[in-house]
Amino acid sequence: MSDSDLDALRAQRMAELSGGGGNNAEKQQAQQEQMRAQEEMKHSILSQVLDQQARARLNTLKVSKPDKAQMFENMVIRMAQMGQVRGKLDDAQFVSILESVNAQMPQSKPTVKYDRRRAAIDSDDDEDYGC
């Protein structure tokens, strides 16, 4: 390949990259708009289905355990779309649905491991006897 061929390939590649960059930005913009629309629809459904106390409890749950709150939101939205929810869910119904979400979530117990060997070896004590 000659230098002119390499220059032509570079120019073509740069044109593809620069042209694709604008298209990529448009796709990203459209994707963000779609995500925003989905979030807005989710919030409108939840505001129709949950009463004020249940919304407050959901917001508290979102702060402490976002993955559990996400599962709860999805479950309530599915129930609302299937027509299983009549009226607004109050706090007691919220708790019962949350308990079923807890049963579905994988349980993992935190484990604490102690390394006792490090606690037994203390180099600071050796330096104190040298004085």
TrEMBL record:
Annotated stretches, region: Disordered: 1-42, 105-131
Bias (Basic and acidic residues) ranges: 112-121
Acidic residues bias: start-end ranges: 122-131
Superkingdom field: Eukaryota
InterPro entries linked: PDCD5-like, PDCD5-like_sf
Gene3D superfamilies: PDCD5-like (1.10.8.140)
Biased composition (Low complexity): 24-35
Family, per entry: Belongs to the PDCD5 family.
The protein's name: Programmed cell death protein 5
Organism of origin: Drosophila arizonae (Fruit fly)
Phylogenetic lineage: Eukaryota, Metazoa, Ecdysozoa, Arthropoda, Hexapoda
GN (gene name): LOC108614334
